[in-house]
Design a protein that fits this description.
The chain has 117 residues and is mainly alpha-helical. The chain has a domain of 81 residues. The protein has four helices and no strands. Helix 2 packs antiparallel against helix 3 and helix 3 packs antiparallel against helix 4. The chain is elongated and about 65 Å long. The N and C termini lie far apart (54 Å).
Length: 117
């Protein structure tokens, strides 16, 4: 099995395109690897939206279900976006970054709304 280093991917993409080979999968993978740290931060923010509310107010089960649904929804959104890019329907940059930006914005909005008062 041959693997390509993250640092060699841009050069490999350029070589593949010059050779006339499709480099879509490599471009998508490179953008996904670039967005991975922000994806992890987004997952922490999603978890924070349902776990930071005090258990004194009750609704712990509802918060847990909301957290599971939000995490599953984010996963499905990211995978559908990735598959669109792999098939060439969207750009690799959009497929990697739009799910992260949308989910992070929603999670921050919910978190700030809950913690504001």
């Amino acid at each position: 099995v041959y693997s390509i280093s993250f640092w060699d991917l841009p050069n490999f993409i350029e070589i593949a395109e010059r050779a006339g080979l499709p480099a879509t999968q490599y471009r998508v993978q490179y953008q996904l690897l670039l967005s991975r740290p922000f994806l992890l931060v987004t997952m922490v923010l999603i978890a924070a939206t349902c776990s930071l509310q005090s258990f004194r107010f009750g609704n712990a089960q509802i918060n847990a279900v909301f957290g599971l649904a939000a995490g599953f929804g984010f996963f499905v959104f990211a995978e559908v976006s990735r598959n669109f890019a792999m098939s060439g329907l969207t750009s690799a940059v959009a497929a990697a970054w739009i799910p992260v930006i949308v989910a992070m914005s929603l999670a921050l909005t919910v978190l700030l709304y809950k913690e504001d008062g």
